Amino acid sequence: MKDKDRVLDGILECGIVAVVRGQSDDAVFKAIEAALEGGANVIEVTLTVPNALGIIRQVAGKLGGEVILGAGTVLTPEMAADAVDAGAQFIVSPNTNVATIEKAKSRSVPVFPGALTPTEVLAAWEAGADIVKIFPANVMGPTYLKDLHGPLPDVPLMPTGGVDLSTARDYLENGAAALGVGGGLINKKLMEEGDFAEIANRARKFREIIEEFRGNQ
Q1: Which residues, in sequence order, are CB contacts of 26 under 8 Å at separation 6+?
Q2: How far is the C-alpha of 213 from the C-alpha of 93, rounded, in Å?
Q3: What is the CATH number of domain 3-210?
Q4: Which residue in the list 4, 103, 105, 133 is annotated as catalytic?
Q5: Catalytic residue check, 133
Q6: How many angstroms from the chain centroid is the CA of residue 149?
Q7: 11-32: b (≥16 Cβ within 10 Å) or e
Q8: Measured distance CA(42)–CA(36) in Å, rounded
Q9: Which of 4, 33, 44, 103 is catalytic?
Q10: What is the C-alpha separation between 15 and 61, in angstroms, rounded?
Q11: Where exactly are the structural domains of the chain?
Q12: What are the contacts of 149-156 at 24+ separation with CB within 8 A?
């Protein structure tokens, strides 16, 4: 199995991409450790985080065997290349930029561009997306995924934006291949308060929802 396929399979197996944003390297690293403790081993560090590439290098160096590590808010092919050079194993964008998708593919890493409308979703898929990130998902809600799957049954979708413990199962039931979760898991307030135990607890709850859902299929 190729590394790219192994990474993609690992992401789908976990079922959740934990999105990390923060102002402190130390807090970001501790939040990632807490998510891992709770069973969420797929981590996306957004490039809006100060020293994001440095954090990716640090996490890849210290936790490389435990984490599937990605870069988010990747807007250009240059950003994608820099992220992969730092240790990112997958690329996530809020939009669909064909050049960015092509750069990720040339570096043999999965890429999840953002889209919302059927036209955008299909364009992202045809450009080479491995999973299409539906963003902002909370604008349309969980049943929107079912509507997209009607005409586009083969496109794996990852809702992101407003996904939390109260909506996770609804998104899964309506066809989400994985969930992109930011504030619902690695919450800014929890990071500021140093409540990393609650981040680990939330990660466990997300994983329990995913496992319970799959067990009933």
Answers
A1: none
A2: 27
A3: 3.20.20.70
A4: 133
A5: yes
A6: 20
A7: bbebbbbbbbbbeeeebbbbbb
A8: 8
A9: 44
A10: 24
A11: 3-210
A12: 149/174, 149/175, 151/118, 152/118, 152/121, 152/122, 152/125, 155/121, 155/122, 155/125, 156/12, 156/130, 156/131, 156/132
Q: What is the mean pLDDT of the chain?
A: 96
Burial class (CB within 10 angstroms; exposed 0-12, middle 13-18, buried 19+) of 153: exposed
Residue-wise pLDDT for 5-56, tens only, equals 999 999 999 999 999 988 788 999 999 999 999 999 999 999 999 899 999 9
| Among candidate residues 174, 143, 179, 177, the one with its CA nearest the CA of residue 159 | 179
Active site residue 13: no
Q: Is the pTM of this model over 0.85?
A: yes
